[in-house]
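Hi Y.,

Following your request, here is the sequence exactly as I used it, all 184 residues.
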Amino acid sequence: MRLEMAKQPENRVQMPIREMDEHNAKVKERSVAIPVAVDDEGDLILWTKTKGVRVSSKVLSVASPVFKAMFNYYRIAPEGSSNEPYSMSVDADGNALEELCQVLHHKPPAVSTDIEKLVQFAKVCQKYQCIMAGKPRTELCLPNFSSLRRLGSEDCVKVLYIISEFGMEGQFATTSKLSHTAKP
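Below is the corresponding structure, written out as tokens. Let me know if you'd prefer a different format.
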């Protein structure tokens, strides 16, 4: 498959097809040879620095105005009868992007209470404007609030960041009070 430019306003910078083909060839040369298949029949592979994630661009476009804008910039032009997905390089944490794509494709990702993973997930949800889609998963993954007393102050700040990103005002008040008793 080859990417072709969709009609864009005159003031936008456009990348010629030749340059896009060269860019996609570089993406395919990454050391990550086999992408994770969130959608086995997906038409797109999103490549990060650490992994590729095969997804349906239609599912992501419906869920995220950012993805929609990214995908509307280019339209897919099949070459022959190839069913190869096209590739796009994105700047995001690979694991967090995979988790977001699983959520958007209605495939439950593993529940993790690792605070750093939740921070990365929150950043990806914010970047692609998928806060509402990611919120239920985050609520399942957040550690029990009574356990915050056992967390260090740095981890408490991360939990407060996660809660604020997902707009959990009630939990923010409770958590901020508990964080005062956290270990330094």
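The radius of gyration is 19 Å.

Thanks again,
Q.
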